[in-house]
Amino acid sequence: MIDPPRVELWAILPVLILFGGALVALVGSAFARRADQAPFALLTLATLAATAASALWLWNREPTTALEGMISVDRLAVVATLTLCGVGAFGAYLGYHYFERDELRRNEFYALLLFALGGMALLVAAADLIVVFLAIEVLSLSLYVLTALTFRRGPTEASLKYFLLGAFASAFLLYGVAISYGGAATTSIQGLARALAGTTGNQALAIAGALLVVVGLGFKVSLVPFHMWTPDAYQGAPTPVTAFMSAATKVAVFVALVRVLHVAFVGLQWDLGPAVAALSAASMVVGSVLAIAQSDVKRLLAYSSVAQAGYILSAFVAPDRDGIAAALFYLVSYAAAVIGAFGVVMLISGGIREQTGFDRFRGLGRRRPGLAALLTIFLLSLAGIPPTAGFVAKVFVLGAATSAGYWPLVLVGALAGVVGAFYYLRIVALMAMREPEGDDVADPSPLPRLVLAVPAATVVVLGIVPGVIVPVLREAGVLTW
Amino acid sequence: MDVPWLTLVVVAPLAGLPVLLLWRSISDEAARWVGLAAALVAFAVSIGMLANFETGEAGFQMVSKHPWVESVGLTWFLGVDGFSVWLVMVTTFMFPIAIAASWKIDHQVRRYMAAALFLETVIVGAFLSLDLLLFFLFFEALLFPMYYIIGVWGSKRRVYAATKFLLYTMFGSAFLLVGILWLYIESGNQLGKATFDLTALEQLQLSTEAGRWLFLAFFVGFAVKVPVWPLHTWLPDAHTEAPTKGSVVLAAILLKTGPYGMLRFNLDLFPEASRYFADAIMVLAVVGIVYGAIVAMMQSDIKRLIAYSSVSHMGLIVLGIFAFSAESMDGAVLQMVNHGLSTGMLFLVFGMLYERTHTREIADLGGIVQITPWLAGAYVVAMLSSIGLPGLNNFVGEFLVLLGTFSVDRVLASIAILGVILSAVYMLWSYQRTFQGPAKERWRSLPDLSWREGAIVAPIVVAMLWIGLQPGPMLERLRPTSELVSERIRTAQVGEAVEPLARTSGTGEEEP
Predict the structure, then answer these.
(1) A210: Cα within 13 Å, side-chain hemisphere
(2) Which residues of chain B neighbour A460 with C-beta distances below 8 Å?
(3) How far is the C-alpha of B330 from the C-alpha of A52, rounded, in Å?
C-alpha cells in the first residue's frame, strides 16, 4: 500500500499568503483596472504584513523539510522572507507614488509585485531543484511584465531584452535540473549532494548538472559573464520596478545559491572555491570598471549592482555560518541602500519620461538638500564608506573570504572598492560641488522623502550598531539539513 | 573617580552635530559659534585628559574597553600613551583655531561646521583606537568629510583635487584592510578567538614571510597618508585647492594619521619586518626630504610651496620613526606636533593674505611687509619655526631626529641635514619675493591683521615658543613610550622571531 503524501501547508504559509494576496489583487484589477489605486496599495501592504507575521511564526520551528522534502523550514528562509517583505513594501510604495504622480492607473502592478514576491519567498525556502525552477519562473515572468508596465518604448524594449536573455538563463537552469536528475536520480538538493559526494548515482553527470544550475542562478544575480541584460533592463524599467527587482531578486536568488553551493557541493572532493572566487573577482572588477564609463545614473547603478553581486559572492568561498551571515548582512544592507538610491532617482527623474542623465543631478545639493543628503547616504553605503552599513558589510564579506584563505580575492575586492568609491562619489560631487543647470523638476512631495528616510536610517544604524542584527543572521546561517 | 576621558574627547565635538544637522534654518553666525563652541569643549576635555596623564608610564592609560559588536570581536577600545597624547592635544588645539579661521566662509556654513566637527571626532578617534577595526573605521571615516570640505568650499579645481585625495588614500587603505583582516583571522587560529585588539594581536607569532607581507600592506596604507615619496602627488593638489581651514586641518592633523599608524601598528605588530625594511624606508624618507625641498624651491604658487615643504618635513618624521632610537622617535612625534603648528600657521597666515589679495602667485605679490607689517610678522614667525630656528618648536624636533639618525646612519643623516638647510633657502627666498621689495600699487590699501586674526594666530605662537623653550614637559611624557618601543625594535634581529611586547598595564576602567 502506498502512503498518501503528507501535505504540510503550514510550511509554505508565507508563500500562500503572498499568492493569495496576489490573486485578490489580480481579480480586483481585472474589474477595476483604472480605479483608484490606493486600495490596492493597502491590500499589498496588508498582505506583506501578514506574510511577515507568518514568517516570524516559523522562526521557532524545529528546522526540517516539508512537503516530501520540497520545502525547507529554517531560519535562513525566515530571515530572507522578512527582508523580502521589507523590500516589497518600499517597492509598492514607490510604485504607488510613481503611478499616482503621472495619474496612470496600473493596478496590475500590485498583483505582479505580489506574484514576484511569492516566487521569491518560495525560492528562499526551496529544498528541491524543481521548486527552484518553478520559483525562478514565477518571479521572472512577473518581473518581465513589470518592466514593460508603462507601455512606453524604452521599458518595452528593456523588457524584451530581459525576457530573451532571461529565457536563456531559464534554459540553463532547466537543463541543469534535468542533468542533475540523470546523475542523482532525484531532484532534491540533498540527493544531489549525495550524488556529488560520490555515494550514489553518476557523479560526473551530477557535477555537470549542478554547475548548470549555478550558471542559471548566476544570470539572475548578474554575475559576470552572465550580466549582459542588467544595464538595459535596469535602465529601461520604470524606476520603482528597478528599485524592487535589484534589491529583491538579489536577496532571493543569493539565498538559493547558499543552498546550492553550501549544501549540494559540500561533499564534493574537489574544491569549488577557486571557481567561485574567479566569478566573484570578475564581477567586482568588470562591474566597477564599466560603471566608470556611464553617464546615466540608472545605468551606473546597474553596473554597480554587478560589482555588488561579486562582493556578495566573495563571502561564499567561506563554507561556514560566518560566511553565510556575512553574505546575508551584505544583502540586507545592499537592499536598503539600493532601494533607497533608486527611490531618490525616481523622485529626481521627473515623471514617467525618466531623465536620469548626470545633468539632472548637477547642483542638486543646492536645490534639494534633503534629497541630495538621502542619496549621499545611500551612495556612501554602496561605496562602503563608514559610518554606513556598506562599510561593515564589506568588512564582513572580505573577512569571510580571508578566513577561507582567499586573500588575493580580498585584495581584488578592496581595490575594486576604490574604483567603486570613484564612481559613486562622482554623483555626490555632481550634487554637492557643481552649480545647478536647467530647470528644477524634482518631485516636491514630502511623503516619499519621509518614507525613504527609513532605509537611510537603516543604513546608518546598521553601520553604527551592526550588532542588532548580526546574531539573528548567524542563527540563519546554520544549515541543518 | 573614573572619568572616561578618552571617550569624552572622541565624542565631545559631536555635541555640536545635532544642532547643526537638525536645525536647518540656523543663521550662519549661530552655526559658526556652535562649531567653535563644540571644538572648544573638545579642547577643554582634552586638557582634562592631559591632566590625568601619568608621567613616566610607558603603557596605555585611561583605557576604556567595551564590546561593540561582540560576534565579530569589535571593541570600543581606547587608550592613550606618550605617542598619542600629544597628537590628540595638537588636534583639539588646532581645530578651534581652524574653525575660527574659516569665519569668512559664507555659503552652507551649517554643513561646513558639521563636516568639520565630524572630522575632528574621527581624527581623534583614530589616534586613540587600540582596536584595529575601530581604527580602520575612523581612518576611513575621515575621508568623506575631508573630500567634502575640499570639494565644496575649495577653489577652482576643487573637484579634481578632492577626488584625487580620496582615490589615493582609499587605494592605500585597501591594502591596510587586507592586512587587518589577515591578522584578525590569524588571531582566531592562534589565540582561539578572533580579535582586532592590538594588545592581543601583538602576541601573535607570525612567520617571517607573513610578517613582511603584512608590514608592507600596513606600510602602503599609511605611506599614502604621510605621504612618503613617491606616493605624494595628491598632496600639493589637495592643499592648493582646499579652503584655508581645509589646508590647515590636512597639514596639521590629517597627515599625522599616517606616521602615527606606522609608529603604532607597523612597529608594534611587525618588529622583525620593521628592521628588515628600515633601510629602504629611510632612503625613501631622505629622498622625500631632499626632493620635497628642491621642488618647493621651484614653485610659483605659495600654497604649493608650503605643500611641498610638507612632503619634505614628513620625510623627516618617517626618517625619525625608522631610525629606531629613542631620541629619533621622540623627535618624530615632536615633529608631528611641530609640523602641525608651523605648517598649519603658514597656511593660516597665507590664507589671511589670500583673503585680501585673492592670488596665490608669488610673482603677483611683493612689498607686503610695508603695507601690513603685523601680517608679515606673523608669517615670519611661522616661517622661522618651519625652518627650525633655535628657540622655536621645530628646532627641538629636527635636532632630536637628526641626532637619533646620526647614531644609526651617518650618510643618511647628513643628506637629511642638507634638506633642512634647503628649507631655509626656499622659505626665505619666497618670503623675500612675496613680502619684501617695492610695494605694488594695487596692494596699497590692504588692511593689516584684525583683532580676530591676531587672536587666531597668537595661541599658535605661544605654543611654538613653549615647545621651543620648554620641551621638557612634552618629552618626559613621551620618553618612556619611545624607549619601550625602540628598545624592542633595536634588539630585534632580522630573520628571527621577536618576543611579544611587555607593556605595563595602564590605569583606567576596564570591562571584561
Answers:
(1) 32
(2) none
(3) 61
Rounded-to-integer distance, Cα B343 and Cα B356, Å: 20
Cβ pair A169, A220 in contact under 8 A: yes
Taking the CA of residue B178 and the nearest CA in chain A, the distance in Å comes to 6
> What is the reported pLDDT for B510?
43
Sign of CA dihedral B321, B172, B280, B286: negative
Grid look-up 552572465 returns A226
A366, A396, A406, A433: best to mutate for the B interface, most B CBs within 10 A: A433
Round to whole Å and give the CA distance between A377 and A381. Answer: 6
CA distances from A316 to A72, A376, A404, B449 (A): 20, 29, 9, 63
Contact list, A403 vs chain B (CB under 8 Å): 185, 188
Query: Which region among B72-76, B306-310, B462-466 has the lowest average model confidence (pLDDT)?
Result: B72-76
Q: Which residues contact A171 (CB under 8 A, 6 or more apart)?
A: none
Contacts of B181 in chain A (CB under 8 A): 395, 398-399, 402, 410
Dihedral-angle region of residue A185 (phi above 0 means left; psi in -120 to 50 means alpha; beta otherwise):
left
- Does the distance separating the beta carbons of A407 and B174 come in below 8 Å? no
Distance CA B482, CA A415 (A): 34
- How many H-runs (helices) and E-runs (strands) does chain A carry? 19, 2
Query: In chain B, which residues have their Cβ closer than 8 Å to the Cβ of A408?
Result: none
Q: Could you say which of B133, B170, B178 has the minimum Cβ distance to residue A410? A: B178
| Predicted confidence (pLDDT) per residue in B240-287, tens digit | 888 877 778 777 788 888 899 998 898 888 888 888 888 899 999 999
Chain position carrying cell 554602496: A382
Task: Give residue for cell 504540510.
Answer: A8
Residue B181 has its nearest CB partner, among A399, A422, A467, at: A399
Q: Would the pLDDT of A271 be above 60?
A: yes
Contact A463, A387 (CB under 8 A): yes
Give the three cell numbers for residue B9: 574627547
Could you tell me if A366 and A436 are in contact, meaning their C-beta atoms sit under 8 angstroms apart?
yes
Q: Cα(B461)–Cα(B454) distance, rounded to whole angstroms?
A: 10
Q: What is the DSSP string of A402-417?
A: HHTT-HHHHHHHHHHH
Here the ipTM equals 0.84
Alpha helices per DSSP H over B358-450: 368-371, 373-387, 393-406, 410-435
**Mean pLDDT, range B360-364, rounded to an integer:** 80
Q: What is the pLDDT of residues A310-333, one digit of tens each?
A: 999 999 888 788 889 999 999 999
Q: What are phi and psi of B504, to 5 degrees?
A: -75, 135
Q: Is B51 exposed, middle or buried (0-12, 13-18, 19+ CB in 10 A)?
A: exposed
* Radius of gyration in angstroms for the set of CA atoms belonging to chain A, rounded to a whole number: 21
% of chain B with per-residue pLDDT over 90: 7
DSSP of B122-144, one letter per residue? HHHHHHHB-BHHHHHHHHHHTHH
Q: How far is CA A381 from CA A285, A384, B145, in A?
A: 19, 5, 15
Chain B positions in Cβ-Cβ contact with residue A411 (cut-off 8 Å): 174-175, 178
Helix (H, G, I), strand (E, B) or coil at B433: helix
What's the burial of A268, exposed, middle or buried (CB within 10 Å: 0-12/13-18/19+)? Answer: middle
Q: In whole angstroms, how far apart are CA A91 and each of A113, A141, A244, A355, A452?
A: 8, 17, 5, 20, 11
Instruction: Using the structure block, give the residue that is written with the C-alpha cell 546523475.
Output: A183
User: Could A385 and B144 be called an inter-chain contact, meaning their C-beta atoms sit closer than 8 Å?
Assistant: yes
Integer-rounded Cα radius of gyration of chain B: 22
CA A326 to chain centre: 15
DSSP A357: B
Geometric angle at alpha carbon A188, from A183 and A194, rounded to 5°: 55
